[in-house]
Specification:
Order of helices and strands of chain A: HEHHEHEHEEHEHEEEHHHEEHEEEHH
Oligomer: homodimer
Shape of chain A: globular
Strand order of the largest sheet of chain A: 2-9-8-7-6-3-4-5
Number of strands of chain A: 14
Largest interface: A-B, 100 and 100 residues
Distance between the termini of chain A: 43 Å
Number of domains of chain A: 2
CATH architecture of the largest domain in chain A: 3-Layer(aba) Sandwich
Strand content of chain A: 5-15%
CATH topology of the largest domain in chain A: Aspartate Aminotransferase, domain 2
CATH class of the largest domain in chain A: Alpha Beta
C-alpha cells in the first residue's frame, strides 16, 4: 500500500490531491494496525494485537457446518440478502443478548453488520454532523476514534478509574460542553472488560451514567464484544437491559466465534434501527448471506455455550499468566489493571517513561505492545500501553512480559542517568496534542478530582 | 422493520428525532428493494430484481471448496484480515481484470470491498463534500443514487442514447456547472451492459468521455459488474485500460460467482487506493477473510471460465426470450433496448403512460418490474421501466412479458378513453421532482440536441 510521507502536506504525485473531501483529512492510519506487520514476525512475542485465539475452534465442525449450508441452502446462502440481515440470525442474536439481561429485544430492531465496527460506522453516519461531539472513555477503542474522525466528529474523552467511567467527570464535561454551545450526540462506551483498559463499569455507575445521558439527551452506544468472556462465569448485565430507549447496543461474534466471518450487530430503538438499515443499504447493499447463515447454523447445531466456556477458561489462564509475570518482573512505579474478562491489561509506566519512544527498543528485544497514545484522540497516554493476553499461549506471555520488564528497567536506568537534562513535566509539552478539535478534560482542568490514566492501578 | 410514515416530517414517537445528522435526511428507501417482498411471491413473475441465477452454480463444488478451506487454512480464514484485503485474492483479481484489457494493474492498488457497493461508498466518502456534484448517466444504478445522497452529493444526470453517454451532453453539463461554480468531483458510469438501460458505451465515445473528464479534472468511476457477461463472447475493453490515472474501476464477483459472498473491489491510482484502505478500516475494520479466501480458492481450483461461459449462454437465452416476447406482444409506441450482455432491458412506454402508477395493476396481473423513476435523482423516467431477464427461466420471462403487454394495452386504452381530461404534458407537472439539489439537464435545457430517455429504442 502506498502511503503519503510528506510532512508539508503537499503531494505532487497525486493528481487527485485537490479533489478529496474535507473528511478525508481525518482518515489516518491506525497505530495498532501499523504495528501488526512487525509484530507478526515469529520471533516476536506480540502483546499488541487483539486477535482472538481461533485455533481453539473445532475446525472440523466449522467445515462440516459451512459445507452442509451450501449443499442444503446454497440458493439462499449464495444470493443477495436484505440490508437488515437474515431474520433467523436476528432471532438467534436476541437469544444471545438475553444472556446479558436483555430480555425484551425484538429481531425487528436488530441490524446485522460487518462486525460491530460497521454498526459504529453506520451509527456515526446517521447521527454525527461535522463538529458534533462524541464522548468516549479515555483511553478508548482505537478504531472507534478513526471512525468518529472520518465523520469529522470532535472526540472528547471522559476520565475513568478502576470502576470505569467517572460520573462526576461526565457531568462536568457535559456542563463545560453545554457552556461552549457544543452539540453532544453520543456517549461511546465499552463498559465491560474495556478495550484497552480492561476495566468494567460498576452496576451503580451504569445507572448513574444512563441517567446523566438521559437528562442530557445523549444517546449511549454500548459496545460489548467481550461481555460473554467473563472470568467469573457470571455475565455482566448490559446497560441496554435497563434503558431500551436510550442505548444502542453493539454486539459481535468476532470474539466468541470467529472474526473472519465479520458478523456483528446493532440493537437499536425502532426508529434508529430503521435508519441504520437505510444507511447499511447505501453502504454495502446487503451483508453476506453466506457468513450470516454460517454463524446461524453454527449456533443452531454446535455446542456454542461450551465453546464460550472453553474460551473463558483459556483467556483466564492467559490473564493469570500475564498478571503473575507482571507482579514478578515489573519495576517499581509501574501499575496495571486486573481485568475480570476480555483481552486486555492497561499498563501505566513510571512517570516520564514514553511508551512510544520505547517501542523500537522493545521490538529489538522481541516483544510488541501498543503505546497508549493510540487510544486517545488528544495525545494523552504517553506513559501507558495496552497489553493483550488473548493470542499467545501462557509461556509466550511470560517470556514477553519478562522481555518487556527488562526493556523498561533499561529505559528507567537511562532516564535516571540523563534526568538532569530532561524536562521535568513531559505532559506540559506534549508534542502529539495536534488535533485542535480534540479536548482532554484532564489537560485543561486543574482540579484534582478527575482520576488520571495512572489511576488504573492493580487493585 | 419500522419505517416512518408521517408526511409532515414530524415523528413524535422517535425520541432521537432531533439528533440525526443532516445527511440522514438523504437516506431513503430504495424503490427496488421495497418491491422485492411483493415480487418474491411465487405466483408473480418478477422482472424486477437483479438477482443472478445462483442455482446454476455447482453447489457440491462450492461446498467442498469452503470445507477444504476451513480444514486446511481455518486459522487464517476465520481470523481478522487487513483492511485492504487478502494479497492472493488481489493478485487473482488482477488476472480477472486482464480479461478486459487491464494489463498493468498491481495488487497494491486493489482494495477488496463488501461488494462493489462498498467500493462506491468508500470512494464517495473520500471524495465528496456536501453539495459536490456527481455526474451519472440518466438513468443510473439505483443504489448509487442512494449512496451519493447519503453523502449529500448533488446528482446531475447526463443523457444517454443507444451508444451510451452522450459526449456533447457531458460537455454542455460541465460548462453549465462550471458557470454555476459547482464542484464536479466524479463521473459515475456503468459503461458496459448498463444497469438499468442495458446500453454499452461505444469505443470511440469511451475515449472522448475520458478526454473530457481529464480536461475537467473529474475522476471517472467505472462500475463494471457485468463486463464478463458479454453475449458475443468478446469482452468489452474497460475504460480503465486506457487511463490508469483517471479512472477508478469497480469490479465484483456477485454476477460471475455469487453475491452471497459480497466480494467486490476497487482498482485505483495508488494515492487514492491508500485513502480507500483507510476509509475501509474505519468502516468495517477488515473484510471477511472467510469469503475472500473462499472466492480465491474457488477461482484457483474450479473451472471458473467455463462457469462464466455457462452463465453467458444462459443469460443470452433469457435475453433472447425477452426480446422475442417484447417484439411479439408490445403495443405500438413502446420501445426497448437490445443489450449485448448483462441483465437488463430498458422499456420506454408510449407517451403519457406512467409506469409507477401502472405497477399495482401489473402486480395484480402477476408481473413485476421497476418503474423508471427509481433510476433518476430528479423524478425523470415516469414513462419507462427496467426489465430484468437474469433470474426467471425463459418460459417465465415469456409469461411475464405477455402479462405486462396486456396490462399496458389496458392502460393505453384507459388513457385514450380519458385523454381529453388529462394534462397534455405530464413532464411539466412532475410531482416527484422534489429534490431541489438534483438537476435534470433535459428539464431545464430547451434545446433538442440532447437525446431523451425515449431514445433508447430497439436498434
Amino acid at each position: 500500500m502506498v502511503r503519503e510521507h510528506r510532512a508539508d502536506g503537499t503531494e505532487p504525485t497525486d493528481r487527485w490531491w485537490g479533489s478529496y473531501a474535507a473528511r478525508a483529512s481525518g482518515m489516518i492510519a491506525s497505530e495498532v494496525r501499523a504495528l501488526f506487520a512487525v509484530a507478526s514476525r515469529p520471533e516476536i512475542v506480540s502483546l499488541a494485537g487483539g486477535m482472538p485465539a481461533v485455533d481453539a475452534l473445532p475446525l472440523d465442525a466449522v467445515a462440516s457446518t459451512v459445507a452442509d449450508l451450501v449443499t442444503s441452502r446454497g440458493r439462499v446462502a449464495l444470493q443477495y440478502g436484505s440490508a437488515q440481515g437474515d431474520p433467523e440470525l436476528r432471532a438467534r442474536i436476541c437469544d444471545v443478548m438475553a444472556m446479558e439481561g436483555i430480555t425484551d429485544a425484538h429481531p425487528d430492531n436488530v441490524v446485522v453488520t460487518v462486525g460491530s465496527q460497521q454498526a459504529l460506522d453506520l451509527l456515526t453516519r446517521v447521527f454525527v454532523d461535522p463538529g458534533d461531539v462524541v464522548l468516549t472513555e479515555g483511553p478508548t477503542y482505537v478504531t472507534a476514534i478513526n471512525t468518529f474522525a472520518a465523520y469529522q466528529a470532535r472526540v472528547v474523552h471522559v476520565s475513568m478509574d478502576g470502576d470505569g467511567l467517572v460520573p462526576d467527570a461526565l457531568r462536568e464535561t457535559l456542563t463545560r460542553l453545554a457552556a461552549e454551545g457544543a452539540r453532544v450526540k453520543l456517549l461511546y462506551t465499552v463498559p465491560t472488560f474495556q478495550n484497552p483498559a480492561g476495566i468494567t463499569l460498576t452496576a451503580s455507575r451504569r445507572a448513574e451514567v444512563l441517567e446523566i445521558c438521559r437528562r442530557a439527551g445523549v444517546l449511549v452506544v454500548e459496545d460489548n464484544p467481550y461481555g460473554l468472556l467473563s472470568f467469573t462465569g457470571e455475565p455482566v448485565r448490559a446497560m441496554r437491559a435497563d434503558d431500551p430507549d436510550g442505548v444502542v447496543y453493539l454486539g459481535s461474534f468476532s470474539k466468541t466465534l470467529a472474526p473472519g466471518m465479520r458478523v456483528g450487530w446493532a440493537l437499536a430503538p425502532a426508529p434508529v434501527a430503521a435508519r441504520l438499515v437505510l444507511a447499511a443499504e447505501s453502504a454495502i447493499l446487503s451483508h453476506s448471506m453466506f457468513t450470516q447463515l454460517a454463524v446461524e447454523r453454527y449456533l443452531a447445531t454446535q455446542p456454542w455455550p461450551e465453546q464460550i466456556k472453553a474460551f473463558r477458561e483459556m483467556y483466564r489462564d492467559r490473564r493469570d499468566a500475564m498478571l503473575t509475570a507482571l507482579a514478578e518482573t515489573m519495576p517499581a512505579g509501574a501499575t496495571w489493571t486486573r481485568p475480570e474478562g476480555g483481552f486486555f491489561i492497561w499498563l501505566t509506566l513510571p512517570d516520564g517513561v514514553d511508551a512510544k519512544a520505547m517501542l523500537p527498543r522493545a521490538i529489538a528485544a522481541r516483544v510488541a505492545y501498543v503505546p497508549g497514545t493510540g487510544f486517545y484522540a488528544d495525545g494523552s497516554g504517553r506513559n501507558a500501553m495496552r497489553l493483550s493476553y488473548c493470542y499467545p499461549p501462557p509461556e509466550r506471555i511470560r517470556d514477553g512480559v519478562r522481555r518487556l520488564a527488562d526493556v523498561l528497567r533499561a529505559e528507567i536506568s537511562l532516564r535516571q542517568t540523563f534526568a538532569p537534562l530532561a524536562t521535568t513535566n513531559p505532559r506540559a509539552t506534549n508534542p502529539r496534542a495536534t488535533n485542535p478539535r480534540a479536548t482532554n478534560p484532564r489537560a485543561t482542568d486543574p482540579r484534582p478530582a478527575a482520576p488520571r490514566t495512572s489511576d488504573f492501578r492493580d487493585q
